[in-house]
Amino acid sequence: MFSRILTGACATAVAVLGFSLIQPLPASAADATIAKQPWAKWDTDGKPVRGGTLRLASSLYIGKMNPNHWPVNDWVTLSRFMERIYINNGTYEPATPWLAESLIFESPTVAVMKLRKGITFHDGSPFNASAIKHQFAWITDKKSGAWTAGSVGPVAKIDVVDEHTVRWTLKHPWAGFEGMLATAPGYAMSEKALKGDQSALDTNPVGTGAYMFDESSPDNFVKLKRNPNWWFAKASGNPDMPYFDNIVVSVIPDPAVRLANLRAGKIDLLTLDKSQYQIALKDPNLRVVKWPRNAMSGLRFNTTKGVFKDIRLRKAVSHAIDRKALIAGTQFGLGRIASAMYPGDHWGHNPNLKPIPFDPALSKKLLAEAGHGDGLAIKGYMYNTSTGTIVAEAVKAMLTNVGIDWQVELMPPPAAAEKMKSLDYDLALGGWSWIFDPDRMATGLYHPKGGFNFGRSNNPEIIELVEAGRKEIDRKKRQKIYWKLEEVVYNDYQDVFLWWEENAIAFNKNVMGWDNDAFLTYKDTYFMSHHLWFKDGKQ
Amino acid sequence: MGRFVAVRLFHALIVLIVVVVLVFIFARLMPGDALLVAVVSSNIDVDTAKAVATLRAQYGLDQPVYYQFFRWLTDFFIGDWGESIGTGEDVLDMFLERLPVTLQLFLWAAVWAYAIGIPIGIVGALRRNTKTDMALTTAALIGVSIPAFFEALILIYLLAVLLPIFPPSGFVPFGDDAWGNIMSMAMPGFVAGTGGAGLIARYVRSSLLEVMRQDYIRTARAKGLPESAVVRHHAMRPAMIPVVTVIGLAWTGVLGGLFIIEVIFALPGLGRMTVDAIFQKDFPVIQATLIVASLNVLLVNLAVDIVYGYLDPRVRVQ
Fold first, then answer.
1. Which one of A63, A184, A433 has the shortest CB-CB distance to B46?
2. Which residues in chain B touch residue A444, judged by CB atoms under 8 angstroms apart?
3. Is some CB atom of chain A closer than 8 A to the CB atom of B92?
4. Buried b (16+ CB within 10 A) or exposed e, B54-68
5. Which of A448, A449, A408 is nearest to A430 (CA)?
6. B64 and B258 in contact (C-beta within 8 Å)?
């Protein structure tokens, strides 16, 4: 009889084990918020296998590993061991609660945030309301040396309601509040670590992420090891996540050598230099995908001094540039023709705006109308990088075709910054990188107090829209404001929008689990929630 | 000899003081707002103006220039070289961590350069105007002419991608893995050495030829000494004087000359650190680097002068 009981128990155990292998473990009440997300699907590319060391390369050493201390040069690596309260969705909205579970505004200046339960830092201390309060008090304390202190200025106070509930009180309605939680100050920091030797966090970080810091050598590498207690693994029903035992990020400054390392099998995944895209596509051992980046490349006009006060001349320049040819010839085909300032997949982009057509005949006509039928001489600058140089040469040639002589100087970024500040240009390098909250770019480029205006743009309608967008906290209304803003900037030919950026990455074919279509849809959220693995768990 | 050294040291000190003042002035005169560029390039969405203002105060750049100068000067001589704007590291720590890497590369380069260059130069001089001499001279010329980055990329492709013998890049500290260190330094050392080998071969050949024409060499031969003894005991030492100068010149140029190799092979050395700092207008690193480089030149020139004095007593008398 005892043997029958034992046999029955064993059979039951095997059944349970077998069932658990093919079904995710049941989610807790809190985890239901994850399970119902549209991105919460992990059934592509086969069954994940644990094991191996993912080897990556970066052009720069990470720098400091405390997100509030300057500088952090590699935010992608940092995001592997530290996590934010909110993260961005597929249209770059900070709309995905990550370490937080929900955020409800009781009034335009008071928000109640529920935090996820069961999250611990790598030092074992809990992620809770007290940690959030302490972190933000530390950021705003001058002694902390946090360069992000200015970014949390509108926060008046933070109250601990209970262990996992925080009440935020703002000084005024702040449309960028959730955006702030999805950027540098929003990376959760351990209260226990902050109360200890804070400077140690620069080189021995403590986060909540899927990986933990292991060791580093400045200018050489960073090594991370798997976090066996990662909260998301349990909460999402993927207990084996993350799948790699370790991650090593080596610093390899030269792009040709990075590709050589990939092709020699010394690294497993690489963001390609654009010039390498076609080479990598032909390599049978690599899988290459491309994705859009939230950056716009363009040219800026000085619309308050010099010839480009005249909109006809701005139009002439914009219509003289063949954007398709520029992307094909200078960006190796990687880039999307830009119609306006926000990328096409950004929630602030007005989908009704079309790219400015290439029309050199129209350019000549407009030049003649403006009194420059015999030619126009203008000056400007671009960066003296290899990309900056070829773009400058290509644009110069296109402008020459319509009778515009662009005297463009090539110079390093700090010198270019001086020219920008002194308005010593007619047409120069423009664009914007890392476009998340639309206010940054709008204020930076078009508001008198913007960090990149310096008086070169002064359109009252645009300024009014920028200020309205900053204050509006209703998402739908805010979107309408930015659509209108884009339209006004577009119709006024405030700048030349050339292309929205694209990246290409190459994987060793042994690396499994990347669904590029899902990434294109969910972007940051996909990157944080879906992890790669090696086929058979080995390099 | 003591007075000779003391006079040289005094001159070096005067030069150092002038350099310190000029370094500070020129670093400040470089155009551009590095902090603004750094924040914009930081790949994070933050309020740029506020971030730049905070950083400017953090690095003391909001203080009057004279205050910045005296603060920097006093801090420098007590070992506080400041913090890098580009990496956040303590600048003195950066030097101390990266110096061994550059030293290793330099030593490997010197070994290759002298191991190849001296024998080629001697054979070329002793077999002057023969086919052997022409072949060796051509090889030396090729070694000097090939750009380091081209040679490096070819070697990486051949010996790391096609035939995976060596790692394509990266540095392994000797203390962590001695064999890994040798393998990681083999290709960079060879590339760094081949340019120097060609130069040394040409110096040794021409210097030895010059010495072999001297009267005392004729006297040595007339005494019946075999040619090998004439070269070894009477010709080599005076022929090495210009070669010593080359060692000195090579070391003073080490930072810039090895930069390309450090970048391509991803070696965390001083050369790479320096040029990164220049492009980023990383004040603290630029200032420290210029002073260390000047000190380097002064000390090496002093050492070369002293060695000259030892090799050739006539220099001491002069």
1. A184
2. 48
3. no
4. bbeebbebeeeeeeb
5. A408
6. no
The span from the CA of A77 to the CA of A73, in Å, is 9
Model pLDDT for residues A344-362, shown as the tens digit of each residue: 999 999 999 999 999 999 9
Are the beta carbons of A220 and B50 separated by less than 8 Å?
A: no
What 8-state DSSP symbol labels residue A142?
A: G
Shortest alpha-carbon distance between residue A488 and chain B (Å): 24
Q: What is the pLDDT of residues A99-127, one digit of tens each?
A: 999 999 999 999 999 999 999 999 999 99
Give me the total of CB pairs closer than 8 Å, taking one residue from chain A and one from chain B: 157
Contact between A466 and A485 under an 8 Å Cβ cutoff? The reply is yes
**A9: confidence class by pLDDT, cuts 50, 70, 90:** very low
A472, A478 in Cβ contact below 8 A? Answer: yes
Question: How far apart are alpha carbons B93 and B112 in whole angstroms?
Answer: 29
Is any Cβ of chain A less than 8 angstroms from the Cβ of B29? Answer: no
C-alpha to C-alpha distance for A297 and B270, rounded to whole angstroms: 34
The string of pLDDT tens digits covering residues B198-254 is: 878 888 888 888 888 888 888 888 888 887 788 777 777 777 777 766 666 665 555
The two structure tokens encoding residue A275: 């010039």
CB B184 within 8 A of CB B254: no
Residue corresponding to tokens 């390392």: A261
Instruction: Find the DSSP H helices in A40-176.
Output: 75-81, 129-140
**Burial class, B139, CB count within 10 angstroms (exposed 0-12 / middle 13-18 / buried 19+):** middle
Residue type, A100: A
Taking a C-beta distance cutoff of 8 angstroms, is the pair A295, A432 a contact?
A: yes
The verdict on a CB contact (< 8 Å) between A413 and B54 is no
